[in-house]
């Protein structure tokens, strides 16, 4: 059978550049630094809640935390990247039987929770910890959460939970109070701009300086959305070797992004990045919505 490997299109930029260490996660030092400290001193809590806007690093950080917890050199602040566990949990790696990612959007019911509860008591197969990453945790039903309550409150020593959600208020308070809560933030434009420059250099693609702020604005503080916009530009009109620029009249990216966004308000965004967004994106005489959740900045300027 003819191989199709040679004609496969590359993975999306945001998948190829998913950070593998906390050092690669941008704009979330208020989360990554305390986590690194807890890892280094072997004081990692049994349950975490990562909340915040989409595409800002919640799932990525949950995976890095799981990787560091199970690194053979643990306790370590950063996964070594070399040991078997780190290699299994690397980007594109086969994964680990002891790190279980559950998408609560499709597995958030009470039966799923009971199933998890039963399996969770078995010790990890190959690693130090059995880590459950429960993504889209706001989709776990109330009954599902109640079925997990006792386990999250007093887990066996080999168990760690990381809940990730855009809507922490929908995680029932009894579960929330048993976690350490870290709110992720929108990423300031300054950081996204330099990140884009870095990625373009790594991709060997020249980008017109004027295009950078437009891409950043269209991404509205989400690293994933920003990389998707860049991907669309790279895959679009540019000829090989020609500088990437915003295609004249291109309407697709910001508008489609905007309409697919959740209408949920962002969780509380604290001083730094939030003020960076509002000061950077507002012009004299014109007030733009500070929250890109409801009005994408890209659309607002288009
Ligand atoms: N803080 C960040 N630093 C660098 N890249 C990021 C960051 N947040 C998100 N990304 C990019 O976006 C992608 C999706 O991130 P993810 O962690 O899944 O977001 P979410 O917060 O929605 O869980 C990652 O693969 C990565 O490429
Ligand atoms: Mg996620
Ligand atoms: Zn390791």
TrEMBL record:
<dbReference type="InterPro" id="IPR012763">
    <property type="entry name" value="DNA_pol_III_sug/sutau_N"/>
</dbReference>
<dbReference type="InterPro" id="IPR050238">
    <property type="entry name" value="DNA_Rep/Repair_Clamp_Loader"/>
</dbReference>
<comment type="function">
    <text>DNA polymerase III is a complex, multichain enzyme responsible for most of the replicative synthesis in bacteria. This DNA polymerase also exhibits 3' to 5' exonuclease activity.</text>
</comment>
<keyword id="KW-0479">Metal-binding</keyword>
<keyword id="KW-0239">DNA-directed DNA polymerase</keyword>
<feature type="compositionally biased region" description="Polar residues">
    <location>
        <begin position="272"/>
        <end position="284"/>
    </location>
</feature>
<keyword id="KW-0548">Nucleotidyltransferase</keyword>
<keyword id="KW-0067">ATP-binding</keyword>
<dbReference type="InterPro" id="IPR003593">
    <property type="entry name" value="AAA+_ATPase"/>
</dbReference>
<keyword id="KW-0808">Transferase</keyword>
<dbReference type="Pfam" id="PF22608">
    <property type="entry name" value="DNAX_ATPase_lid"/>
</dbReference>
<keyword id="KW-0235">DNA replication</keyword>
<dbReference type="Pfam" id="PF13177">
    <property type="entry name" value="DNA_pol3_delta2"/>
</dbReference>
<feature type="domain" description="AAA+ ATPase">
    <location>
        <begin position="44"/>
        <end position="188"/>
    </location>
</feature>
<dbReference type="InterPro" id="IPR045085">
    <property type="entry name" value="HLD_clamp_pol_III_gamma_tau"/>
</dbReference>
<feature type="region of interest" description="Disordered">
    <location>
        <begin position="234"/>
        <end position="294"/>
    </location>
</feature>
<protein>
    <recommendedName>
        <fullName>DNA polymerase III subunit gamma/tau</fullName>
        <ecNumber>2.7.7.7</ecNumber>
    </recommendedName>
</protein>
<keyword id="KW-0547">Nucleotide-binding</keyword>
<keyword id="KW-0862">Zinc</keyword>
<dbReference type="GO" id="GO:0003887">
    <property type="term" value="F:DNA-directed DNA polymerase activity"/>
</dbReference>
<feature type="compositionally biased region" description="Low complexity">
    <location>
        <begin position="253"/>
        <end position="264"/>
    </location>
</feature>
<comment type="subunit">
    <text>DNA polymerase III contains a core (composed of alpha, epsilon and theta chains) that associates with a tau subunit. This core dimerizes to form the POLIII' complex. PolIII' associates with the gamma complex (composed of gamma, delta, delta', psi and chi chains) and with the beta chain to form the complete DNA polymerase III complex.</text>
</comment>
<comment type="similarity">
    <text>Belongs to the DnaX/STICHEL family.</text>
</comment>
